[in-house]
Protein: Receptor protein kinase-like protein ZAR1
Organism: Sesamum radiatum
Amino acid sequence: MVLFLLSWFNLVCGDVVLVSSLNDEGTALLSFKQSIKEDPEGSLSNWNFSDETPCSWNGITCKDQRVVSVSIPKKKLSGFLSSSLGSLSELRHVNLRNNKLFGGLPSELFRPQGLQSLVLYGNFFSGTLPFEVGNLQYLQTLDLSQNFFNGSLPASLLQCKRLRNLELSHNNFSGSLPNGFGKNLVLLEKLDLSFNVFGGPIPGDLGYLSNLQGTVDLSHNMFNGSIPASLGFAVVARGRMKMLMVSRREVAFDLDELLKASAFVLGKSGIGIVYKVVLEDGLTLAVRRLGEGGSQRFKEFQTEVEAIGKLRHPNFVTLRAYYWSVDEKLLIYDFIPNGNLATAIHGKPGLVAFTPLSWSVRLKIMKGVAKGLVYLHDRWIPTLQSSRMVSEKPQRGPQSSSASDVATIASASSFSSYYHAPESLKVVKPSQKWDIYSYGVILLEMITGRSPLVQVGNSEMDLVQWMQLCIEEKKPVSDVLDPNLAQDADKEEEMIAVLKIAMACTSISPEKRPSMRHVSDALERLPVPSD
């Protein structure tokens, strides 16, 4: 009987020792597991009392046997967020995105002061953002988007001065942004407050957010007032369906002022009308009206425009703003006073006299456009139609010797189809080789002085075909070059080199066309004469 009791005692005590061997952090995580009502994929199936530590559990990362990360995204977990996670003192990262978690955020969750990222988007959380969020001095990413949070943002959020990504879109947050929002969160690289019910004026100190990458999205809220000067790319709402994006420049204007301003038509093309708009303070802008756009196309439009808005290069005019509504879309750029490249080469329609571009200016423009396309191609930006590029003549002054000729999307002529690569009529997916062909046509246009459509006797042919015919008939170079370049006859060797580059770019076979990097390098080897 004594032996039996001793054996029973050892067995029970052994079990007790076994159960109690799991450390405190493991016990805290098991409390979190108990708050999960559904785990259809068994993501927490290996979370057991039988382990000494939770470091081998699914979704758990440890450092020096302390839990530093809880990452269980997209596992269809259903339940609430246990306050026990707050007892993980070394916790650095929490990622529970795209689950079915609900309820409020326990204030204890913000107890681990070293927490660097809290990602909860795509759940069913509700309630307010606890004041205790201000305890997280090292927080860099806070993503609560696509939930049902409400209420105002606590002023304590401004104590999270290391925040780089703040994403709160698609919730029911309301009220004004805390005073000092921009001055305190100066490290922000991404700010998305869209699709909430925030109100009040857009804080002027948002202009302090100099580290922004991409856009500040304030759309689909109830904000009012002007867009602050120096605000990085911003999307702000005028009602529920209108948006505006502003580039990082020392200027402030609002949509009402833009729409009331005096406007003059600069040109038309297949994608819209370009206006010269003069605001009350004298600021002049170029506004391209793209026409009607259905709401189902907004995301595609936003993606493409924001890709353009991120371009930062000496050979591109920065996109200043964009406006979107169901009825129309606008792209807003700095106004380029010298007109487009077609006008610079051929003069304005109806005007006989004009000052032709010298060879040195043409070569600078060629090099500038090439550099711009290299920049695009290196970053695999969606194909840019070269037929809608314009170049600004170099201005006199300290920058006149640099490659400051600016390429931008604009209306160049009524011959846009003649800039298109032959295969673009058959192949749906755009290719960089299309740009190279278009660029080759531009080179031919600049060096021959002829339009993309050439009149030959009683017939017409495109400029590339005409050039090929000249080569076949062995016509002298003087018959090919723009007569206005006669004063630069001593540069004929360089002009012939450009002709060869242009013909390579316009090869009927895409595979035989050089890369823009190769083209740009070849042009850079040509000396630019001083005027």
